[in-house]
Amino acid sequence: MSRTERETTADHPQFSDKRESTARVIRQRQLSDGIHELVLETSLGASAKPGQFVNLYCRDSARLLPRPISICEAGDRELTLVYRVVGNGTREFAALQPGDCLRLAGNLGNGYRLSAAAGKHVVIAGGGLGIPPMLFLARSLHACAGEDAPASLTVVLGYRDADTVFLDRAFDEYSKVFIASDDGSVGMKGTALDVIRTQGLQAETTYVCGPMPMLRAFAQDSEERRRNGKNNACYVSLEERMACGIGACLGCVVKTTDTDSHSQVRNARICAEGPVFDSREIAWGEMK
Amino acid sequence: MKSRMEVSIAGVTLKNPVMDASGTFGNGREYEELIGPEALRMLGAIVTKGVSGQPWEGNATPRVAETPSGMLNAIGLQNPGIDVFVRRELPFLKEVKESSGTRVIVNVCGHSVEEYLSVIERLHDEPVDLLEINVSCPNVKQGAIAFGQDPKMLERVTRAVKDRAGQPVMMKLTPNVTDIRELARAAEAGGADAISLINTLTGMKIDVHRRRFVLANRTGGLSGPAIHPVAVRMVYEAAHAVSLPVIGMGGIQSWEDAVEMILAGATAVAVGTATFHNPQAMQQIIRGIEEYLELSGVADVNELIGAVKD
Which of A76, A108, A140 delimits the end of a domain? Predict the structure, then answer.
């Protein structure tokens, strides 16, 4: 996707479904150590797209900034969020009980471009906390039919070790699934990219969400494939510390290879132009 | 009939005394998507994000961090420059103004006096009600705060801006000074029509586990409820040092905080960081002030300006 093609919803407010609202907790459970699954009753589910996120507001106003959480699954009247408890804000969410209410803003960000999968051999790669949004993506691509359907769909999940595994069975109904771990205690030893290489998986379109080294490795791999004359596109989902989540504060920018049309400099807003970018748009050499 | 919420700044009437604090609200358009057109048009004024002569890249990321009851930011005044601002953002603000009476205040920044002037001249004949001159951003190395910490420099910049401005000029002051009154007087001496304060307090946060600065810029501006008492004190001091109208800001998150600022001497208030926590904070503050006037039998919000008693 080139920057000229890309437009934010701010350019077309009539297509925007962003809103602040209150959701009710349907249920919450722990999936593994520190990883929670929160199911919310909210009409935002009906219009959510894979790769988008919501901002959850803390009840305690001493914790001012909303917490951006990726959408793991969406239904007509519900959203499923899978998050890690990392601080006081997420600890507050972890204590929510069925029937409790919380404020949120959604649906934020651009989401994955499903049309890039049409007729292609597709690999979805998720690493650690990057895995949850890939479930919604896998289901959505699995549901694509006819010309929109991928030629093949494979999911690769990367974990640190056997103790940090979650959502590992959730993808089975949509795709063949490979699992990798850093220490080999579950699945194959190595990274998600190692799995693609050792298994010789066909990857014409890859969708990646995970830690920065993983995103960088996939972006480089995609670049090499293209250099070798192969048709390849790689879409990465980025994260950054955010304040507003809607493109107003310019807190969460990423360096881009070309001048961004909104900013007029080489900065794109992760919350508005992203969080999903074509890997070619990102100035990887300038990222820490 | 004049509404009891109306206030006037340098001859510009605001339908109520509540506006956003520059940089926290984009150029209004971004929040309209979230809060809707009616809520946006409730505001007394929309203050734009800082606009410079040329596009500015801003600082490296991370640019924001949460702190107890506050946040640090070091955006570095990233903006697309005055040409794109006029072409892309101003038509929307003009429509908002014409349809609702919400005033348009453009925040102007620059690395040099010439850059401020280039922005101001470009806005000369545009539908802008007031100019807010940012001489107080702690996050850019050249210009900005350097102009705002030295009374002589501030007076000189104010005079230069006033000479060329097509609209009334409001100087935005930094709290990162020993005596805010000196700066308020310098702005007045330079011919300012109003002053706004406080900009953010310079702060720093260190990640003890990684032993690194949390912000790429190392320092950032502290905002949010944590700074509110400091802001009230400085607004009080500045308002009593000069005869200019004061726009008070700093950690306002409720109507009580807003009224407190008005009692300290502010003619109007700006709400910033609270919007991140509650996108409808400004609308709730407007309704809250209205109810407070009603319930306490105050006929006009202007009666509250500087009305704090010993």
Answer: A108
